[in-house]
Design brief:
Layout: E1 8-14, H1 21-31, H2 40-46, H3 52-62, H4 69-83, E2 88-95, H5 107-125, E3 128-136, H6 141-151, E4 160-164, H7 176-184, E5 188-193, H8 199-209, E6 213-216, H9 224-233, E7 237-239, H10 241-246, H11 258-263, E8 268-270, H12 275-278, H13 282-291, H14 297-309, H15 315-322
Parallel strand pairs: 1-2, 2-3, 3-4, 4-5, 5-6, 6-7, 7-8
Helix pairs in contact: 4-5, 6-7, 14-15
The structure holds adenine and zinc ion.
Length: about 325
């Protein structure tokens, strides 16, 4: 089966994680931002991460080149141009507004820049998209609450709010107030949990933040009762197998728990996370899961259909897209 062409939804991708070395270098030149790299190869050679925090350090440093709304448009447009050939029909993009505040970029400026990229993607490739700004969990609650205040006047322009960044020692319980305000405004929530952090963070994400999906969740098998509950409730886990390996969550792809998650009846989907940093987009992840983990074509089709069903599109559109999977 042609896994690249298989229609799919990308539900776990950080827009800033799609910043390819060539665009990073071009934006650095344009915006006169100094970066410690002189070539694409030098950038890629620096991308060796043994942990989430090692990755995040370079990821936040790379964001320094994004200075204007037009930069975000270029970033989003380049991302969609890339994944148009990897079967993506719909994408829900994470982005980190707090990571751009020090550069004087307001939430609404970033939003407007990304939206223009999304409009171009729909016109050029017929790819639909929704936006999910994320709260950075390494920052404090006051910063999260300020961001919520800044975002809510524009709540019709994004579909959910997420929680991401450094996980260890930063439980979802720290952000209950911020997420309560988001939910009170009728906005959905998602959270990264169980990537490097314990299964208990997934329970907190569900019980305290009311999440509709869990991003990663690969450590859920450490809690058998939670595994059964999440499987029964059908809460989707947006798993990013190749990224997990590159960030040291698993020693190798062969050791990834994806087959066991599937066996446990969990509603897993397959995604890329930070494809430019990992050099592996969503279609590449499907291919890796088939070739290295031996996931059957029929299972990958189920996962592709599920990716549309687990999206935040309205139901008729979810069903229409899922029916495109052969
Ligand atoms: N931000 C970007 N990529 C991330 C990841 N894999 N985990 C947590 N936060 C992130
Ligand atoms: Zn992520």
């Amino acid at each position: 089966m042609d896994l690249m062409a298989l229609p799919k939804a990308e539900l776990h991708v950080h827009l800033e994680g799609t910043l390819e070395p060539d665009l990073l270098l071009a934006l650095a030149r344009k915006n006169q931002v100094e970066v410690p790299y002189s070539s694409r190869d030098a950038v890629l050679a620096a991308y060796q991460f043994g942990s989430l925090d090692a990755f995040l350090k370079l990821y936040y440093a790379g964001m320094a080149v994004l200075r204007t709304p037009a930069d975000f448009t270029a970033l989003a447009e380049a991302y969609f141009d890339k994944v148009a050939s990897q079967g993506v029909r719909h994408a829900e993009l994470f982005f980190d507004p707090q990571a751009h505040q020090d550069k004087g970029l307001a939430f609404v400026d970033i939003l407007q820049g990304i939206e223009e990229g999304c409009r171009r993607a729909r016109a050029k490739h017929g790819i639909s998209s929704l936006l999910i700004p994320c709260i950075l969990r390494h920052l404090d609650e006051a910063s999260a609450l300020r961001l919520v205040d800044e975002m809510l006047p524009h709540k019709d322009r994004f579909v959910a709010v997420g929680l991401d960044s450094s996980e260890k020692g930063r439980p979802p319980s720290l952000f209950v107030k911020a997420f309560q305000r988001i939910r009170d405004a009728g906005i959905k929530t998602v959270a990264h949990a169980g990537e490097e952090g314990p299964a208990d963070y997934m329970r907190q994400a569900i019980d305290l933040l009311g999440v509709s999906r869990i991003d990663h969740g690969v450590r859920i098998l450490e809690d058998a009762a939670l595994t059964r509950e999440v499987a029964r409730a059908g809460i989707p886990l947006t798993v990013c197998p190749v990224c997990n390996v590159r960030l040291g969550v698993f020693g190798s792809l062969e050791q990834h728990h994806l087959p066991r998650l599937i066996e446990a009846g969990l509603a897993v989907t397959i995604h890329s996370d930070d494809p430019a940093y990992i050099q592996s987009y969503i279609g590449d992840n499907y291919v890796a899961c088939a070739n290295t983990l031996g996931i059957a074509d029929s299972t990958l089709k189920t996962i592709a259909r599920r990716s549309f069903q687990a999206s935040f599109l309205p139901e008729p559109e979810r069903a229409r897209l899922a029916a495109l999977v052969p």
